[in-house]
């Protein structure tokens, strides 16, 4: 049975711009955080389906 996730919450903190903006962006870290949140939501949805 497919799981549908209807809401995506993205949290961002805006700070002052620095001279080395390209070095301060951690793409790998952002990707890991997003994957972690997605996996958590999928597990939550699976648990909800099992309890029904």
Explain what the structure shows.
The chain has 52 residues and is an all-alpha fold. Helices cover 56% and strands 0% of the residues. It has two helices and no strands. It has helices spanning 21-24, 27-51. The relative contact order is 0.17. The mean pLDDT is 76.
Oligomer kind: single chain
Rg over CA atoms, rounded to whole Å, is 16 Å
Biggest sheet architecture: none
- Helix/strand-derived category reads mainly alpha
Q: Output the helix-strand order.
A: HH
Number of helices: 2
Q: What's the end-to-end separation, in Å?
A: 13 Å
Taken from the alpha-carbon principal axes, the silhouette is elongated
Percentage of residues in DSSP E strands: under 5%
Keywords:
mainly alpha, elongated, 2 helices, 56% helix
Task: Write a brief structural summary.
By secondary structure, this protein is mainly alpha-helical.
List the helices and strands and how they pair.
Layout: H1 21-24, H2 27-51
């Amino acid at each position: 049975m497919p799981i549908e996730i209807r809401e995506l919450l993205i949290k961002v903190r805006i700070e002052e711009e620095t001279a080395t903006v390209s070095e301060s962006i951690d793409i790998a870290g952002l990707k890991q955080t997003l994957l972690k949140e997605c996996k958590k939501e999928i597990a939550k949805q699976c648990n909800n389906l099992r309890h029904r």
